[in-house]
Amino acid sequence: MSTIVLASLHKRFDNFVAVRDTSLTIGSGRFVVLLGPSGCGKTTTLRMIAGLELPTSGQIMIDGEDVTQLRARQRDIAFVFQMFALYPHMTVRNNIAFPLKNEHVPRKEIAARVDTAAHMLRIENILDRKTGGLSGGDRQRVALGRAIVRQPKAFLMDEPLGTLDADFRELMCLELRKLHNALGATTVYVTHDQSEAMAMADDIVVMNRGELLQAGPPQEIYHFPATVFVGNFIGSPPMNFLPIDGGLDAGDEQVRLHGAAVPVPRSVAAAERVLLGIRPEHVAIDQHGPLRGKVTADEYLGSHQVLVVETALGVVRVRVGKDDGLPAGSPVGLSFRKERTLLYDAQSGRLLPGAARTVPAHGEAHG
Q: Which residues belong to any copy of the ABC transporter domain (predicted)?
């Protein structure tokens, strides 16, 4: 297990800034997911940690050692790519053993490590088959096995499930998390899929346009997104954002939406233009609600439904029970759960400081 520290990490390709002044501490034994859309800088950050890219400026520390300028092979880190870099003419056993043979590890130790990894990954029955004819899922397990046998300081994974179908990807999310728990190793995992991140991560790092926007446990990221972008990117459906009337003064405990008063947690900041942010499960259909609208769609999702409500302030999505849908055209009132209401500076897109915030108790719906 290793601690990885990034200090003011910056990467520029000609005139394009891929990663901008990023500082992050990845705790020993943590499963940390770098999450964001294509081009956000997550893979470049991972490659710099691995030593496959050198930063333009900044520092990378692993267990207190400055590795910023060290080559990849000098960092004792295992990298698992999206496209499995296996040798199709070799057996599974030889593919897994390959890095150990290059390091001149004794044969008996190689055999023991390969057998241990194969048992963990449940691929003992295919050890003597060639990888060229294996399914995508089995090849992914072989790639993981080749990383495991090295017993590295940390595992770095660049969208390793990206080529798998949806059902198998969900299964492998559980398998990867179980494998991480068994090994206890530090893992840094890159994905653009929020479902993968929420299912596996101890901590999620959300990036966009080369910037680190927020880092923290999944529950914190979901319930208290630090920016409008994070609120839109995390959650399905995403957080609702509604413009309030006028500005916000420090000490305010209510705002106005289209002329109607809405209670909010006490503000400790002021802003000229403000957005009210709230998750769909914290909006209620309420005939006396302060915001009026009309249902335009009803999305049935099995365990629940999502009502799409058109209001004077834009579309609001409301999560309701599986039997609580309403037909299109139904007039409704909307009310908002006060303690789950957040306020954002409309200009910067950043969360405004407010009253003390706590993550909902286990079992409260959060998408």
A: 4-234
HEC per residue, 272-338: CCEEEEECHHHEEECCCCCEEEEEEEEEECCCEEEEEEEECCEEEEEEEECCCCCCCCCEEEEEECH
Token pair listed for 20: 């901008």
Which stretch of DSSP H or E encloses residue 7?
strand 4-13
Q: What residues form DSSP beta bridges with 154?
A: 77, 186
- Structural domains of the chain ordered from first start: 4-223 (3.40.50.300), 237-345 (2.40.50.140)
Q: Give the contacts of 50 (CB within 8 A, at least 6 positions apart).
A: 72, 75, 77, 79, 156
Helix (H, G, I), strand (E, B) or coil at 265: coil
pLDDT band at 357, cuts 50/70/90?
A: low
> Between β-strands 260-263 and 77-80, what pairing exists: parallel, antiparallel or unpaired?
unpaired
Q: What distance in Å separates the CA atoms of residue 327 and residue 298, rounded to the nearest whole number?
A: 7
Q: How many residues does the chain have?
A: 367
Q: What distance, in Å, lies between the first and last C-alpha atoms of the chain?
A: 32
* 62, pLDDT greater than 80: yes
The region of weakest confidence among 2-11, 108-117, 130-139 is 130-139
Residue with tokens 């916000």: 248
How far apart CA 175 and CA 315 sit, in angstroms, is 38
CB 251: neighbour CB atoms within 10 A?
A: 10
The answer to whether 343 and 326 have CB atoms below 8 angstroms apart is no
Residues 243 and 73 sit within 8 Å (Cβ to Cβ):
no
230-260 per-position pLDDT tens digit = 999 999 999 999 999 988 999 899 999 999 9
Backbone angles phi, psi at 319, to 5 degrees: -90, 125
Rounded to an integer, what distance in angstroms lies between the CA atom of residue 313 and that of residue 319?
Answer: 18
Q: What phi-psi label fits residue 284: left (phi over 0), alpha (psi between -120 and 50 degrees) or beta?
A: beta
List the structure tokens of 271.
């802003």
